[in-house]
């Protein structure tokens, strides 16, 4: 695969997204690339970048020609990848059939829309408790106070973690996902602590009949111990880094387009506008795959064993698929965005994330009549797409 002697680091950002402004607004680059070089080889990073909706959808849906399993390549998963811990069993996200369904299918019923919807009241109470501790008539760092602790507490509750552990759990999550400034060794240490913490819980719950996700995974004989621990850490990480950004980006969009009153009054449908936030500012901007055979995309031939980066954030703004793609249209329907991926790796937590966003926004808008995010000096996060801080003035 490598076209130069340099190693191929999985998540290295392209040169066009080197500075903070372009990380926050990569959409001009996407637009230019869709027009001028929709399938482009990057010889610095040894990979192909794909920008058109049709190509991104093909890559997502055809797991036989485009695999997420990189175990037989020379790509390195270095520290800093939020979804993998180097040196341990890779997650279902990097697993191909038939192993993939063994690692995923036992959990699928828990994430069906109907099952997820049963948690509405419980999650609403979690949101209300967090909002209770916000001092009204003040400016708060809303990610710290609400949009980050909420999904973590929800996922901790689904995993069946004791309430007293939530703070530690949150610290690990912050350290491993770099939401707060931290160094690589702190992240590695947090990941190791997290694995040994889950390892003990998995052993403790192997024979139990608990209803939580850890017990479900631990009592599944089809998974090895290491695979079970990886399942738990994947759910933890995948389940909160992205969702915090969905909720935060929703508030960012509502501020940018002056939508708070219309969403609060119901003039704009909450579920519909959340889909548009998902399209417009997708928390995961890209996915990676490796070709298993020579392929042709948009007239360009690509060899087998090539790394592809498929830009969901660009596909979601492709004028071939969406009218007025650069405009935020709160009532856009249908909205066939690719934000949760597609095919066999389609996001396991999509319905959970949608419900969490719906509850978070409903509770926040019910509680506060004035919500004023300060969007004047936004800075991007490093690992997933979204802002690092969102100071916000709140009045009941
Ligand atoms: C807005 C929030 C979320 C977004 C944007 C998102 C996005 C994605 C995307 C794009 C993928 C596919 C990656 C690929 O094909 O390479 C994925 C997979 C996955 N997501 Fe999510 N996700 C979100 C929330 C969640 C939540 C709450 C959970 C918690 C259970 C979760 C668990 C997973 C898992 C386990 C996979 C791997 C599925 C597989 O490989 O079969 N995600 N997610």
Report on the structure:
There is one protein chain. The chain is an alpha+beta fold and 396 residues long. It has a single domain, classed as Cytochrome p450. It has 16 helices and twelve strands. It has helices at 20-24, 27-36, 53-61, 99-104, 113-117, 120-132, 142-147, 149-159, 166-177, 184-205, 213-218, 225-256, 260-265, 270-280, 312-315, 350-367, and strands at 8-9, 39-42, 47-50, 66-67, 75-76, 138-141, 286-291, 295-297, 300-302, 307-311, 370-373, 391-395. Strands 2-3-10-7-4 form a five-stranded mixed β-sheet, sandwiched between helices. Strands 6-12-11 form a three-stranded antiparallel β-sheet. Strands 1-5 form a two-stranded parallel ribbon. Helix 6 crosses helix 8 (149-159), helix 6 (120-132) crosses helix 16 (350-367) and helix 14 crosses helix 16 (350-367). The structure holds protoporphyrin IX containing FE (HEM). The site of protoporphyrin IX containing FE has 24 residues, from helix 12 and helix 16.
Layout of helices and strands:
Blueprint: E1 8-9, H1 20-24, H2 27-36, E2 39-42, E3 47-50, H3 53-61, E4 66-67, E5 75-76, H4 99-104, H5 113-117, H6 120-132, E6 138-141, H7 142-147, H8 149-159, H9 166-177, H10 184-205, H11 213-218, H12 225-256, H13 260-265, H14 270-280, E7 286-291, E8 295-297, E9 300-302, E10 307-311, H15 312-315, H16 350-367, E11 370-373, E12 391-395
The structure holds protoporphyrin IX containing FE.
Protoporphyrin IX containing FE (HEM) is lined by residues 68, 92-93, 104, 234-235, 238-239, 242-243, 246, 282-284, 287, 339-341, 345, 347-349, 352-353.
């Amino acid at each position: 695969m490598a076209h130069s002697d340099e190693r191929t680091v999985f998540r290295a950002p392209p040169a066009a997204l080197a500075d903070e402004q372009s990380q926050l607004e990569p959409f001009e680059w996407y637009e230019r690339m869709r027009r001028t070089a929709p399938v482009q080889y990057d010889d610095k990073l040894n990979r192909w970048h794909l920008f058109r909706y049709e190509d991104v959808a093909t890559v997502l849906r055809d797991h036989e020609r485009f695999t997420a399993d990189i175990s037989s390549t020379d790509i390195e998963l270095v520290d800093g990848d939020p979804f993998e811990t180097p040196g341990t069993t890779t997650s279902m996200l990097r697993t191909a059939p038939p192993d993939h369904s063994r690692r995923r299918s036992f959990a699928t019923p828990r994430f069906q829309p109907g099952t997820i919807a049963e948690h509405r009241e419980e999650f609403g109470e979690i949101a209300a408790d967090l909002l209770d501790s916000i001092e009204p008539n003040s400016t708060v760092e809303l990610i710290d106070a609400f949009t980050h602790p909420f999904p973590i507490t929800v996922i901790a509750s689904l995993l069946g973690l004791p309430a007293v552990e939530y703070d530690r759990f949150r610290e690990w999550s912050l350290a491993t996902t770099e939401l707060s400034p931290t160094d690589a060794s702190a992240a590695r240490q947090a990941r190791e602590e997290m694995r040994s913490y889950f390892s003990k819980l998995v052993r403790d719950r192997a024979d139990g009949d608990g209803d939580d996700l850890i017990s479900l995974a631990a009592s599944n004989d089809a998974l090895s111990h290491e695979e079970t621990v990886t399942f738990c850490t994947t759910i933890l990480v995948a389940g909160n880094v992205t969702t915090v950004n969905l909720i935060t980006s929703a508030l960012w969009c509502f501020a940018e387009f002056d939508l708070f009153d219309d969403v609060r009054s119901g003039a704009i449908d909450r579920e519909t506008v959340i889909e548009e936030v998902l399209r417009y500012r997708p928390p995961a901007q890209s996915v990676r795959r490796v070709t298993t055979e020579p392929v042709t995309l948009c007239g360009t031939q690509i060899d087998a064993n090539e790394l592809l980066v498929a830009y969901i954030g660009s596909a979601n703004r492709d004028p071939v698929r969406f009218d007025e793609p650069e405009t935020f249209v709160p009532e856009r329907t249908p909205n066939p965005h690719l934000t949760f991926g597609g095919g066999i790796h389609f996001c396991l937590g999509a319905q959970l994330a949608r419900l969490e966003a719906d509850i978070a926004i409903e509770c926040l808008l019910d509680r506060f009549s004035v919500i004023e995010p300060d969007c004047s000096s936004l800075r991007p996060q490093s690992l997933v797409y979204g802002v690092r801080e969102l100071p916000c003035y709140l009045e009941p």
